[in-house]
């Protein structure tokens, strides 16, 4: 299994040596798309549409659940340092502290949000594509093995499906949103209100 992991890693990471002109683009995807994701998430929230707010809440709670599972359960089952620590001749393009890289936190974050956003609007396939690109980019820049990324993706996808089917049906989340919107309404009144989640 470890040989497959290393072989897959080499196949992706060595692309940085073969196509160095692509490295700046890959570094941007690996490091800075998280800023873009944060801005888009805020934009969705402040459209003040109920569907968008349930979507953001679902993504947020998906990430929390997936990160807890990843950090406190799955990471205890296996340990490996980043490839640039364990292997020679790694194309390391970004700085990273050496620690347990299994599973990939970055992948968990992106798959949590991107898969939830896609579940709420399945016509927009750009979200799953973005999450896959981020996962691949983390291998390309030398900070994760493929199995780190695949495991993180699987955890996030399972949690996304669970939370997608729970959030809109649990009174707790509806109550939390109502309390928030009552406070928001006092500060920033709006004309039209709706409480329907259209999926």
Automatic annotation (TrEMBL):
Domain of life of the source: Bacteria
Name of the molecule in the record: Undecaprenyl-diphosphatase
Pfam families registered for this protein in UniProt: PAP2
Kinase as UniProt keyword: no
The organism of origin for this protein: Cytobacillus kochii
Residue intervals passing through the bilayer: 25-47, 54-74, 102-120, 125-143, 149-167
Domain Phosphatidic acid phosphatase type 2/haloperoxidase per the UniProt entry, residue ranges: 59-164
Organism ancestry: Bacteria, Bacillati, Bacillota, Bacilli, Bacillales
Any one GO MF annotation of this record: undecaprenyl-diphosphatase activity
Record-linked InterPro entries: PAP2/HPO, PAP2/HPO_sf, UPP_Pase
GO cellular component terms listed in the entry, alphabetical order: plasma membrane
Keywords carried by this UniProt record: Membrane, Transmembrane, Transmembrane helix
């Amino acid at each position: 299994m470890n040989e497959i992991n290393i072989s897959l890693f080499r196949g992706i990471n060595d692309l940085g040596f073969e196509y160095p002109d692509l490295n700046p683009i890959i570094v941007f995807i690996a490091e800075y798309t998280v800023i873009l994701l944060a801005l888009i998430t805020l934009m969705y929230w402040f459209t003040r549409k109920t569907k968008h707010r349930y979507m953001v809440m679902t993504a947020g709670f998906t990430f929390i659940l997936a990160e807890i599972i990843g950090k406190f359960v799955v990471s205890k089952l296996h340990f490996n340092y980043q490839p640039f620590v364990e292997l020679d001749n790694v194309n390391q393009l970004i700085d990273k502290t050496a620690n347990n890289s299994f599973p990939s936190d970055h992948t968990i974050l992106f798959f949590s949000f991107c898969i939830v956003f896609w579940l709420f609007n399945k016509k927009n396939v750009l979200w799953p594509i973005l999450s896959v690109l981020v996962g691949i980019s983390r291998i390309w820049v030398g900070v994760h093995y493929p199995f780190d990324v695949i495991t993180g993706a699987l955890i996030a996808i399972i949690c996304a499906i669970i939370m997608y089917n729970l959030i809109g049906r649990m009174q707790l989340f509806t109550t939390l949103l109502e309390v928030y919107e009552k406070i928001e309404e006092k500060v920033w009144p709006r004309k039209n209100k709706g409480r329907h989640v259209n999926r």
